[in-house]
Design goal:
By secondary structure, this protein is an alpha/beta fold. The longest helix has 30 residues.
Protein backbone atom coordinates (compact mmCIF):
# COMPACT_ATOMS: atom_id res chain seq x y z
CA UNK A 1 0.00 0.00 0.00
CA UNK A 2 1.42 3.35 -1.09
CA UNK A 3 0.73 6.55 0.80
CA UNK A 4 0.58 9.57 -1.51
CA UNK A 5 0.29 13.19 -0.37
CA UNK A 6 -1.52 15.56 -2.73
CA UNK A 7 -1.27 19.21 -1.63
CA UNK A 8 -3.87 21.49 -3.20
CA UNK A 9 -4.80 25.16 -3.15
CA UNK A 10 -7.78 24.28 -5.38
CA UNK A 11 -6.11 25.91 -8.37
CA UNK A 12 -6.37 24.38 -11.81
CA UNK A 13 -2.77 23.16 -11.80
CA UNK A 14 -3.05 21.53 -8.36
CA UNK A 15 -6.17 19.66 -9.47
CA UNK A 16 -4.32 18.61 -12.61
CA UNK A 17 -1.52 17.17 -10.44
CA UNK A 18 -4.07 15.20 -8.42
CA UNK A 19 -5.55 13.73 -11.60
CA UNK A 20 -2.04 12.90 -12.84
CA UNK A 21 -1.28 11.00 -9.62
CA UNK A 22 -4.55 9.06 -9.81
CA UNK A 23 -3.66 7.86 -13.32
CA UNK A 24 0.00 7.18 -12.53
CA UNK A 25 -0.90 4.90 -9.62
CA UNK A 26 -4.04 3.53 -11.25
CA UNK A 27 -3.04 -0.10 -10.72
CA UNK A 28 -1.41 0.39 -7.31
CA UNK A 29 -3.15 0.12 -3.95
CA UNK A 30 -2.88 3.65 -2.52
CA UNK A 31 -4.02 5.89 0.28
CA UNK A 32 -4.29 9.41 -1.13
CA UNK A 33 -4.15 12.24 1.40
CA UNK A 34 -5.49 15.45 -0.13
CA UNK A 35 -4.14 18.39 1.86
CA UNK A 36 -5.06 22.06 1.97
CA UNK A 37 -2.99 24.33 4.21
CA UNK A 38 -4.54 27.58 5.38
CA UNK A 39 -2.03 30.29 6.24
CA UNK A 40 -2.19 33.21 8.64
CA UNK A 41 -2.69 35.77 5.88
CA UNK A 42 -5.86 33.97 4.79
CA UNK A 43 -7.88 35.82 7.41
CA UNK A 44 -7.74 39.06 9.39
CA UNK A 45 -5.50 39.11 12.46
CA UNK A 46 -6.78 39.48 16.02
CA UNK A 47 -5.61 43.07 16.36
CA UNK A 48 -8.12 44.08 13.70
CA UNK A 49 -11.16 42.19 14.95
CA UNK A 50 -12.59 40.53 18.02
CA UNK A 51 -11.43 37.08 19.06
CA UNK A 52 -14.87 35.60 18.48
CA UNK A 53 -15.09 37.05 14.99
CA UNK A 54 -11.58 35.84 14.19
CA UNK A 55 -12.52 32.34 15.28
CA UNK A 56 -15.63 32.55 13.13
CA UNK A 57 -13.64 33.56 10.05
CA UNK A 58 -11.13 30.77 10.75
CA UNK A 59 -13.88 28.14 11.07
CA UNK A 60 -15.53 29.41 7.89
CA UNK A 61 -12.28 29.06 5.94
CA UNK A 62 -11.60 25.58 7.31
CA UNK A 63 -15.14 24.41 6.59
CA UNK A 64 -14.97 25.78 3.06
CA UNK A 65 -11.66 23.96 2.45
CA UNK A 66 -13.10 20.70 3.80
CA UNK A 67 -16.10 21.00 1.49
CA UNK A 68 -13.82 21.71 -1.49
CA UNK A 69 -11.74 18.61 -0.78
CA UNK A 70 -14.90 16.54 -0.30
CA UNK A 71 -16.04 17.70 -3.74
CA UNK A 72 -12.70 16.71 -5.27
CA UNK A 73 -12.85 13.26 -3.69
CA UNK A 74 -16.47 12.77 -4.74
CA UNK A 75 -15.66 13.70 -8.33
CA UNK A 76 -12.68 11.30 -8.45
CA UNK A 77 -14.59 8.40 -6.91
CA UNK A 78 -17.55 8.87 -9.24
CA UNK A 79 -15.29 9.04 -12.26
CA UNK A 80 -12.73 6.30 -11.61
CA UNK A 81 -14.48 3.88 -9.22
CA UNK A 82 -11.04 2.40 -8.44
CA UNK A 83 -11.20 -0.07 -5.56
CA UNK A 84 -7.42 0.17 -5.16
CA UNK A 85 -7.67 3.78 -4.01
CA UNK A 86 -8.76 5.31 -0.72
CA UNK A 87 -8.99 9.07 -0.15
CA UNK A 88 -8.57 11.15 2.98
CA UNK A 89 -9.14 14.86 3.53
CA UNK A 90 -6.77 16.99 5.60
CA UNK A 91 -7.12 20.72 6.26
CA UNK A 92 -4.40 22.30 8.35
CA UNK A 93 -3.58 25.77 9.64
CA UNK A 94 0.21 25.94 9.69
CA UNK A 95 3.32 26.88 7.76
CA UNK A 96 3.02 25.05 4.43
CA UNK A 97 6.26 23.04 4.62
CA UNK A 98 5.92 22.33 8.35
CA UNK A 99 2.46 20.94 7.74
CA UNK A 100 3.68 18.71 4.93
CA UNK A 101 6.59 17.40 7.03
CA UNK A 102 4.28 16.54 9.91
CA UNK A 103 1.80 14.76 7.67
CA UNK A 104 4.55 12.86 5.87
CA UNK A 105 5.82 11.55 9.20
CA UNK A 106 2.39 10.77 10.62
CA UNK A 107 1.09 8.92 7.56
CA UNK A 108 4.41 7.46 6.30
CA UNK A 109 4.11 9.23 2.95
CA UNK A 110 5.95 7.61 0.01
CA UNK A 111 5.47 10.36 -2.60
CA UNK A 112 4.41 13.98 -2.66
CA UNK A 113 2.75 14.88 -5.96
CA UNK A 114 2.11 18.57 -6.53
CA UNK A 115 1.52 21.01 -9.34
CA UNK A 116 3.87 23.77 -10.37
CA UNK A 117 3.39 27.19 -11.85
CA UNK A 118 5.61 30.06 -12.93
CA UNK A 119 5.92 33.35 -11.09
CA UNK A 120 4.93 36.66 -12.64
CA UNK A 121 7.40 39.31 -13.71
CA UNK A 122 10.36 39.44 -16.05
CA UNK A 123 12.14 36.52 -14.44
CA UNK A 124 10.28 33.24 -14.42
CA UNK A 125 10.59 30.09 -12.34
CA UNK A 126 9.66 26.64 -13.51
CA UNK A 127 8.78 25.53 -9.98
CA UNK A 128 6.43 27.59 -7.87
CA UNK A 129 7.94 28.76 -4.59
CA UNK A 130 5.97 26.23 -2.55
CA UNK A 131 7.30 23.36 -4.64
CA UNK A 132 10.89 24.55 -4.30
CA UNK A 133 10.48 24.84 -0.53
CA UNK A 134 9.04 21.33 -0.29
CA UNK A 135 11.91 19.92 -2.36
CA UNK A 136 14.44 21.73 -0.20
CA UNK A 137 13.02 20.96 3.22
CA UNK A 138 11.18 17.63 2.94
CA UNK A 139 12.81 14.21 2.88
CA UNK A 140 10.07 12.56 0.83
CA UNK A 141 10.37 12.19 -2.97
CA UNK A 142 8.56 14.98 -4.81
CA UNK A 143 6.91 14.50 -8.19
CA UNK A 144 6.32 17.98 -9.64
CA UNK A 145 3.74 18.21 -12.41
CA UNK A 146 4.02 21.26 -14.71
CA UNK A 147 0.88 23.25 -15.31
CA UNK A 148 -1.22 21.65 -18.02
CA UNK A 149 0.79 18.41 -18.17
CA UNK A 150 -1.61 15.50 -18.71
CA UNK A 151 -0.78 11.90 -17.88
CA UNK A 152 0.32 9.70 -20.74
CA UNK A 153 2.34 6.52 -20.80
CA UNK A 154 5.73 7.28 -19.27
CA UNK A 155 7.78 5.03 -21.50
CA UNK A 156 11.09 6.92 -21.17
CA UNK A 157 12.57 8.58 -18.09
CA UNK A 158 15.84 10.52 -18.02
CA UNK A 159 17.90 10.44 -14.82
CA UNK A 160 20.20 13.47 -14.90
CA UNK A 161 23.47 13.65 -13.00
CA UNK A 162 26.98 15.01 -13.10
CA UNK A 163 28.11 11.74 -11.44
CA UNK A 164 29.75 13.72 -8.65
CA UNK A 165 29.15 10.90 -6.18
CA UNK A 166 28.19 7.25 -5.92
CA UNK A 167 24.61 6.01 -5.76
CA UNK A 168 22.70 3.72 -3.42
CA UNK A 169 19.66 1.78 -4.55
CA UNK A 170 17.55 2.79 -1.53
CA UNK A 171 17.82 6.43 -2.63
CA UNK A 172 16.61 5.61 -6.13
CA UNK A 173 13.83 3.21 -5.12
CA UNK A 174 11.11 5.77 -6.03
CA UNK A 175 12.54 5.95 -9.56
CA UNK A 176 12.63 2.17 -9.77
CA UNK A 177 8.98 1.96 -8.72
CA UNK A 178 7.82 4.44 -11.35
CA UNK A 179 9.86 2.67 -14.01
CA UNK A 180 8.15 -0.59 -13.05
CA UNK A 181 4.68 0.97 -13.08
CA UNK A 182 5.12 2.05 -16.69
CA UNK A 183 7.59 -0.59 -17.95
CA UNK A 184 9.71 2.43 -18.80
CA UNK A 185 13.13 2.70 -20.37
CA UNK A 186 15.71 4.57 -18.29
CA UNK A 187 18.00 7.08 -19.98
CA UNK A 188 20.93 7.91 -17.70
CA UNK A 189 22.09 11.36 -18.77
CA UNK A 190 25.62 12.31 -17.75
CA UNK A 191 25.79 16.11 -17.69
CA UNK A 192 29.42 17.07 -18.13
CA UNK A 193 30.05 20.44 -16.50
CA UNK A 194 33.19 22.35 -15.59
CA UNK A 195 34.21 19.65 -13.11
CA UNK A 196 33.86 16.36 -14.96
CA UNK A 197 33.69 13.50 -12.48
CA UNK A 198 34.92 10.98 -15.02
CA UNK A 199 36.47 8.77 -12.36
CA UNK A 200 32.96 7.94 -11.06
CA UNK A 201 31.48 7.25 -14.48
CA UNK A 202 32.40 3.57 -14.78
CA UNK A 203 31.36 2.82 -11.22
CA UNK A 204 27.98 4.47 -11.67
CA UNK A 205 27.35 2.80 -15.02
CA UNK A 206 27.92 -0.56 -13.33
CA UNK A 207 25.50 0.47 -10.58
CA UNK A 208 22.71 1.23 -13.05
CA UNK A 209 23.36 -1.95 -15.05
CA UNK A 210 23.13 -4.00 -11.86
CA UNK A 211 19.99 -2.40 -10.44
CA UNK A 212 17.94 -1.38 -13.48
CA UNK A 213 16.79 -2.89 -16.76
CA UNK A 214 16.33 -1.16 -20.13
CA UNK A 215 19.12 1.32 -19.41
CA UNK A 216 20.67 3.59 -22.04
CA UNK A 217 23.48 6.11 -21.46
CA UNK A 218 23.91 9.54 -22.94
CA UNK A 219 26.37 12.34 -22.36
CA UNK A 220 26.00 16.07 -22.89
CA UNK A 221 28.51 18.83 -22.24
CA UNK A 222 27.04 21.88 -20.57
CA UNK A 223 27.69 24.86 -18.32
CA UNK A 224 25.67 26.96 -15.90
CA UNK A 225 24.33 29.20 -18.64
CA UNK A 226 23.12 26.48 -20.99
CA UNK A 227 22.42 23.46 -18.78
CA UNK A 228 18.64 23.92 -18.86
CA UNK A 229 18.50 24.41 -22.62
CA UNK A 230 20.75 21.41 -23.25
CA UNK A 231 18.68 19.07 -21.10
CA UNK A 232 15.52 20.50 -22.60
CA UNK A 233 16.79 19.75 -26.11
CA UNK A 234 17.86 16.26 -25.07
CA UNK A 235 14.44 15.49 -23.58
CA UNK A 236 12.64 16.69 -26.69
CA UNK A 237 14.85 14.83 -29.14
CA UNK A 238 14.68 11.58 -27.13
CA UNK A 239 10.94 11.77 -26.40
CA UNK A 240 11.56 11.78 -22.63
CA UNK A 241 8.35 11.70 -20.54
CA UNK A 242 9.85 12.41 -17.11
CA UNK A 243 13.08 13.86 -15.73
CA UNK A 244 14.43 12.39 -12.48
CA UNK A 245 17.24 13.62 -10.30
CA UNK A 246 18.81 12.96 -6.92
CA UNK A 247 19.30 16.04 -4.81
CA UNK A 248 21.63 16.42 -1.84
CA UNK A 249 22.56 20.07 -1.61
CA UNK A 250 20.20 21.39 -4.32
CA UNK A 251 22.77 23.46 -6.21
CA UNK A 252 22.49 21.37 -9.38
CA UNK A 253 18.71 21.31 -9.08
CA UNK A 254 18.30 25.03 -8.50
CA UNK A 255 20.76 25.93 -11.26
CA UNK A 256 18.88 23.62 -13.59
CA UNK A 257 15.31 24.64 -12.99
CA UNK A 258 14.79 27.79 -10.95
CA UNK A 259 15.93 30.81 -12.94
CA UNK A 260 15.96 31.22 -16.65
CA UNK A 261 14.81 33.67 -19.28
CA UNK A 262 11.29 34.44 -20.40
CA UNK A 263 12.07 32.82 -23.76
CA UNK A 264 13.17 29.57 -22.11
CA UNK A 265 10.12 29.61 -19.90
CA UNK A 266 7.84 30.05 -22.90
CA UNK A 267 9.30 26.95 -24.53
CA UNK A 268 9.74 24.93 -21.34
CA UNK A 269 9.39 21.21 -21.53
CA UNK A 270 5.98 20.02 -20.44
CA UNK A 271 6.96 16.89 -18.51
CA UNK A 272 7.04 15.92 -14.82
CA UNK A 273 10.10 16.12 -12.58
CA UNK A 274 10.89 13.53 -9.92
CA UNK A 275 13.26 14.75 -7.20
CA UNK A 276 14.64 12.20 -4.75
CA UNK A 277 16.84 12.76 -1.73
CA UNK A 278 20.34 11.43 -1.15
CA UNK A 279 20.53 9.87 2.30
CA UNK A 280 24.26 9.04 2.51
Amino acid sequence: MKNILLPTDFSKNSINAINFAIKLFEHTACNFYILNVQKASSFISDDMMSVSTSASVYNTLIDAAKKSIANIISHIENKSKNENHSFYSIVDYDNFVDSINQICEKHHIDFIVMGTKGASGLEKVIFGSNTIHVIQRCNVPVLAIPDGCKYKNIDAIAFTSSFSSSYFIEDLQPLKEILKLNSSKLNVLHVVEENDFAENLSQNMNFFHTNFTKVEYSRIVSDDKNVYNNIHDYAISNNIKMIAMLSKNHTFLERLFTKHSVETFASKIDIPFLVMKKSK
